[in-house]
Amino acid sequence: MDRDSREVYIRCEDLFKIHKIADLEVVALRGLDLKVRRGEFMAIVGASGSGKSTLLNILAGLDVPSAGRAFVGGQDLLTMSRQDMVEYRRSRVGFVWQQTGRNLVPYLDAVQNVEVPMILAGVGKAEARERATALLEAVHLQHRLHHRPQQLSGGEQQRVSIAVALANNPPLLLADEPTGELDSVAASSVFDLFAELNHDFGITIIVVTHDPDIAARVDRVVAIRDGRTSSEIFRRIRHEGNQAEVVHDEYVLVDAAGRLQIPHELLERLSIRDRAKVLMGEGHLEILPESVTREPR
């Protein structure tokens, strides 16, 4: 299925988030727009403080934006009642933290950890054990069912964490720096698992990461800068004769207000600071430093 033909599952419009710290106000999101299609496996990247984790917390129902709109599966996160939000967090979204200690109960073994969300949701013990076992098999840990977290490697702990996040069969899985504390081999294995789960079960997956090679692993990478989406990279397969190769198409994004975020390195190269000229050409726009004088081509 073509990426543009899938239903839009997540839609964020003009999101703002202001954190108040004592007498200071910190703006984490500044009119962010984002669309994610059902079944997409995408990554969000950006510098520390760019707003990517804040966005993930809003989509998880763990935080509320200061202004704007956020829809997940047709549900408006800003107008949900408290009870609806509890149900949303319990059954509509799974979350994986960077620190496995936030995902797992240390004195429970792997299968018991996966059972916990189901038992809290009222699932019977036998059914919970059956599904927990199946999920641990899906993350390739059928040989670690009765091992506690301290008996598992970091990569195995994060695999159990993913199984816990999927316990109540949510259609959306969010992960905040899930490989941040893992070595390169374990990190690669976790990303391979995300891709496998996305392919096999059609789960929509959003990962916040600093991994420099993430573009080769996901359908799309969205970069956030200064609280707004700034650019995105799509991965596609190009066929030439009998040959096929993976190519990455990069775009800058235009938000609902028509604002265009131009990468800093391009602005510096052209010495564009406070102002720029925009000229209409033959089927294209030209963005020029204000000192340049010429007619559009």
Strand-helix topology:
Layout: E1 8-21, E2 24-37, E3 41-45, H1 52-59, E4 67-72, E5 75-76, H2 82-91, E6 93-96, H3 110-120, H4 125-138, H5 154-165, E7 172-176, H6 184-201, E8 204-208, E9 220-225, E10 228-240, E11 243-252, H7 264-269, E12 276-280, E13 285-289
Biggest β-sheet, characterized?
A: 7 strands, mixed
| Helix-strand category | alpha/beta
* Oligomerization state: single chain
What is the CATH topology classification name of the largest domain?
A: Rossmann fold
Radius of gyration (Å): 22 Å
Mean of pLDDT:
88
Number of domains: 2
Binned strand content? 25-35%
Give helix and strand order, one letter per element, not per position.
EEEHEEHEHHHEHEEEEHEE
Choose one word for the global shape: globular
The helical percent reads 25-40%
As laid out across the biggest beta sheet, the strand order is: 6-7-8-3-9-10-11
| Number of beta strands | 13
The DSSP helix count reads 7
CATH superfamily of the largest domain: P-loop containing nucleotide triphosphate hydrolases
Low-pLDDT stretches are: none
CATH architecture of the largest domain: 3-Layer(aba) Sandwich
